[in-house]
Amino acid sequence: MSRVRGTFVSSLNSSLNGGLRRAMHPGGLLALTLTAGLWLGGAARAQDSQIIYPGSMAVTGFSGTIIPNFDAGLPPGVDPVDETFIDTTRATLRVFDVSHLGGPAAGQLVFTPPPFEVTAEQIGQVFGLTYDDGVRDGLPSGVPNLYAGATSLHGIRIVTPDADDDGRPERQRRGTAGATFMDGQFGTENGGGPGTIWKIDGITGQVSKFADIDTNSGPGIGNLTFDPLHRQFFASDLDTGLIHRIDADGRLIDSFDHGVAGRPAHGLAPVADDGSVMDIQGAAFDSEDPDSWGYTQDERRIWGVSYHGGRLYYSVGEKSEIWSVGIARDGTFAGDPRWELTVKADKDYAVTDIAFDNSGFMYLAQRGPVENRYDYSQFADSGKGEVIRYWRENPDDPATESIWVEVPQEYAVGFPQGNRQSAGGLDLQYGYDADGNLDTSVCTQTLVNTGDKLRDNPALAEQLAAGGPLAVHGVQITPKELVKPANVPPFGSWFVDFDGYFEDPEVEGHVGDVAVWHPCEGRAGYYEEIPGGYLPPFYPPDFPPPGNLPPCLDVEDVQYYCTPSGLEADLYLHDHAGFGGDSIKALSRTPGVGVTSPMSHAPGTPYTIGITGHYPGDTVDVGLCFYRKSDKDKGGYYPCCKMTLPLKTPAVSCER
Fold first, then answer.
1. Over the stretch 101-132, which tens digit does the pLDDT of each residue have?
2. Where would I find the H helices in 330-484?
3. What global pTM score does this model have?
4. Would you say 625 and 640 are in contact if contact means Cβ atoms under 8 Å apart?
5. What superkingdom heads the lineage (predicted)?
6. C-alpha separations of 261 from 241, 267, 306 in Å
7. How far apart are CA 112 and CA 40, in angstroms?
8. Which among 218, 254, 209 is positioned nearest to 235, based on CA atoms?
């Protein structure tokens, strides 16, 4: 059976209704084969050794298309688009070795060793990615497993059985009786579906079904994240809007409903799921209209998820809001949802990925609205998506609603005008030296993000030509300090193409998420809960109540964060005595250590203090004065509840 491989785009003439890509010209298939052989490896394969190392970069994307039995020809009048199907033999997930980029960043395309590949036949189309912690049989192995979630972000395609005896099923644009998902859509050939989360063993490369949200009718999984403290996963469900909590064995434990339980915490009316589903056998389904796909309402639609600082951060809706909810000591949802910020960007696009670095910056990647062209050319409205970063105000500005800065910093993504080619995936990587070699001693120093048409700018074509092909759909690698106006245009970045094919400048949304395995031993990178918090009714060690009086405060929990200015501790206090305080002053009772209380308190948020001058792992005695701001504003003496709190700081330092 002959095949025309690759992504299907309009590239012949209008008489073919979009036609076949240039690979169909004489010699085109040979040229494609040679090109792919130079830039990428072969089909999915098991490895003699592990497939994931520190710095390994996993990327998802559309697997491409074929016309089965194309050499036999098509009958006159048959539109080749109607006979074009997902190529199940090609990869929808690749793991790249980007440890040696070949030289200083100059906007060039990077040659990488052949990546490890997982095909559409094995897992279907996937978007969201995460790693676990590499614990195997209760022991750390140093090699994590990789997880990928089924997606509709690379289109939805349906078929009915072969009716014209050409050996191919019949493509359908609209829902109809007997319709099924096309092979390669959700890995149904391997027992998968739209709610499946796949596991790729980091040592052997073996693929297996890890978990299944069987109530998902077709919208798929928004994204995934791993909580290393409780060894559990979180997955956002685009069908119901729920965030599912999944244990390390793939069992669904429970879920969090932002629409009902989250929104009221910010004064918003609850919004329950409307029950809509993707019914590919119903007349209302239109493969080119995402509004008919059964997504939950925008107000409750969760896209990106990221576990950080003892909380699960998540993004909501097209006009994206970032929220968080605490994860309790037993791993359950703490029931304290908190609005963090409303994204300020040029376009109201969904934030489909969230990441944090070791300095407290929060990184967000936008992806354009979902599209699904029948000719496979476009899966997102690309070209305006931004990659931005926020950080916590220090000190907090009481005039602003959020504890985060109002205006984020932005990165230049791609060379096209505007430099906003984000495809919705990002992560942090180790640092690189001047020659482009990975430096694992420097953690979270580099930003990696996915994008479309990354090197395609006619005005710069001559300058870009020396750095390789222009039609690059893949990943941009950038030192994280290069925020705009620096790196415009992004000649300070490296680029990696997803599939090694460079004759498809028209496609949009064909690249998905990116995830890097970057363990940071000895560093306060991924925030993990650190001893020092206290559960009521217990009190901090060595803190007896003064005299026989009960303490006026309970210390319920302490959580630590790295920020651009150093270590901060969030204190969760309970006004045990009904004192009525709403503010704190903090000072150090440990010589040589500085303690500040830079952030004012807002209802429902913790009290934040900054700690400087200590050695990692030291116990710092912090004196607190808990008072009412209205009393202080009157001038003169004001009553305060005083206590000394011993804080055991993290045994690792924040990076500067």
1. 999 999 999 999 999 999 999 999 999 999 99
2. 461-465
3. 0.83
4. yes
5. Bacteria
6. 12, 11, 19
7. 8
8. 254
